Amino acid sequence: MIEKNQRMVEELISEIATLKTDESITEQIIEIQKKFDLDDIIQILTLLNKVNKTTLKKIVSIQEPKESSKTKSKKSLPQKLYTVDEVRYLFKNKSINEILQSYTKKELENMYVTVAERNPLSSDSKARIAKSVEQHFRAEARGQAIYKNYIAH
C-alpha cells in the first residue's frame, strides 16, 4: 500500500511539474484532480508547499548518496623512479642492511610506491619501509608457490 501511495505521489508531483504556464493553471489543476481522483487538490498543494526542504534533501541524499565530506581525497602518488623488476632485483641480491645504507628514505618510499601502489605511512621509518617492501615480495613468492603447487597442477 505504501509503495502504491508513494508511486501516486511521485506521479502527482511529476504532473504538477509539467504544468504549462501559458495555459490556464486552474483548468490544468482540475484535470490533475480528476485524473488522480482527488477531493481537494488545493489542500494537497498547500501541504506539499509546507514540506520541509531540508527533509526532502535528506531523502534525496539517502536515495542518491554523495561522497561524504569525511572521506579523504586521494593524493596523487609521486612519479615512479623504479620499476617493479628493478626493486625485486635489488631486494633479491642485497640484504636489508646494505639497502638501508645505500638508499635514502625518499628513494625507499619511491620503491614502496612502485611495489605497493600507495604511499607509505608518514610515520614509517626507513627500516620499516624497506622491510615492508621485502615482505611484499615474500608474500608474492608464497602466493606463486601456492598457485603452482595446489591450483595449477
Write up what this structure looks like.
The protein is mainly alpha-helical. The protein folds into 2 domains: 2-63, no CATH class; 84-151, no CATH class. The chain is built from 8 helices and no strands. It has helices at 2-17, 25-35, 41-50, 53-63, 84-93, 96-102, 105-116, 126-151. The longest helix is centred in the last third of the chain and has 26 residues, at 126-151. It is elongated, with a radius of gyration of 32 Å.
Quick gist of this model?
With 153 residues, the chain is mostly helical.
Order of helices and strands: HHHHHHHH
Helix content: 55-70%
Main β-sheet description = none
Query: Could you report the average pLDDT, rounded to the nearest whole number?
Result: 79
Number of extended strands:
0
Determine the oligomeric state from the structure: single chain
Strand content: under 5%
What is the total domain count?
A: 2
Distance between the termini: 58 Å
Radius of gyration from the alpha-carbon trace, in angstroms: 32 Å
State the secondary-structure class.
mainly alpha
Task: Indicate the low-confidence ranges by residue numbers.
Answer: none
**What is the molecular shape?**
elongated
Helical stretch tally: 8
